[in-house]
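tokens incoming
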């Protein structure tokens, strides 16, 4: 067993022991939120790290949250069925948007604008269907838990933060496994080739449209699962917190800030953004509307310019440089 595996095992064990340290529900809520958003950000980085910069993942998150909630509220269908349905719908939307973009080589900022429009269309659609979705006021999944019945596996509702913590840890680990599987597959090399030069990759036998669609489908599915779990955990969703431009930009910023090229980078980004949000809420509250978004935007620009590999990516580079030391100087030859 190598050192990296041991460190990961110890880290996971430490996370699993976290609820046993007697922290308050508020601290547990922060930890749950970090892991849940870390999973969502990891889902975005699966495609974002290959140059497919999507600004529309708020749409996939909204689909995940609202499909599961609507099926439960209006048809009594358990989230265990609703989540797979939401994943299928998200994947279908991803293909519907991705196929024409990839087929006609709509890339770069044009692809970003198309996905940005998708995010806003999803938000407006949720608002327009107010009779079913609750519109801009949001909606609460029908609760079946009470003092006598504090949990329901069928409804995927639990009053205990500890139970939710371990559920979210499982979801988060699943996201890391998917990220690692993509990273270690031939898909990674194909996507890296495509991101550099599509024509050259195609000449080597890479099916450019298909490989891009596969990555997009994986990313959309992960984001939908994150949205569904978010809705079940919060027991309240609205268009502003689960879809739309603001959520999409938050996902992009956090993944880039933490380091989308590193497995734990998006989770590190979740730590940064959530601690920043909580600090601003504790200090200025809601006195300055939109302050957090302004800070996110300014930091995003700075990260892209000065730290394109993110905080965690930069830290890993510094550690590697210290470990390896300065590059060896060539020995002078006789007569020089």
């Amino acid at each position: 067993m190598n050192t990296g595996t041991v460190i990961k095992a110890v880290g996971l064990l430490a996370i699993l022991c976290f609820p046993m340290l007697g922290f308050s529900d508020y601290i547990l809520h922060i930890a749950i939120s970090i892991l849940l958003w870390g999973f969502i950000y990891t889902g975005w980085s699966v495609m974002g790290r290959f140059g497919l910069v999507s600004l529309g993942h708020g749409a996939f998150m909204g689909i995940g949250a609202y499909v599961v909630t609507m099926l439960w509220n209006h048809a009594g269908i358990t989230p265990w069925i609703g989540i797979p349905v939401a994943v299928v719908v998200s994947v279908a939307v991803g293909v519907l948007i991705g196929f024409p973009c990839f087929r006609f080589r709509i890339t770069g900022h044009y692809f970003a604008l198309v996905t940005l429009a998708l995010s806003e269309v999803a938000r407006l659609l949720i608002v327009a269907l107010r009779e079913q979705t609750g519109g801009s006021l949001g909606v609460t999944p029908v609760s079946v838990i009470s003092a006598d019945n504090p949990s329901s596996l069928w409804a995927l509702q639990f009053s205990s933060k500890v139970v939710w913590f371990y559920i979210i840890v499982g979801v988060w680990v699943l996201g890391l496994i998917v990220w690692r599987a993509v990273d270690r597959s031939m898909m990674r090399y194909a996507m890296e080739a495509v991101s550099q030069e599509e024509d050259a990759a195609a000449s080597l036998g890479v099916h450019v449209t298909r490989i891009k669609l596969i990555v997009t489908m994986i990313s959309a599915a992960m984001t939908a699962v994150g949205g569904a779990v978010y809705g079940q955990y919060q027991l309240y969703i609205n268009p502003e917190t689960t879809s739309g431009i603001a959520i999409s930009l938050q996902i992009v910023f956090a993944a880039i800030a933490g380091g989308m090229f590193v497995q734990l980078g998006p989770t590190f980004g979740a730590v940064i953004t959530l601690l920043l949000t909580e600090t601003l809420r504790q200090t200025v509250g809601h006195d300055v509307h939109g302050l957090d978004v302004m800070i996110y935007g300014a930091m995003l620009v700075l990260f892209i310019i000065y730290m394109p590999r993110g905080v965690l990516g930069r830290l890993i580079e510094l550690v590697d440089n210290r470990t390896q030391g300065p590059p060896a100087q060539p020995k002078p030859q006789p007569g020089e």
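note: The chain is about 70% helix and 0% strand.
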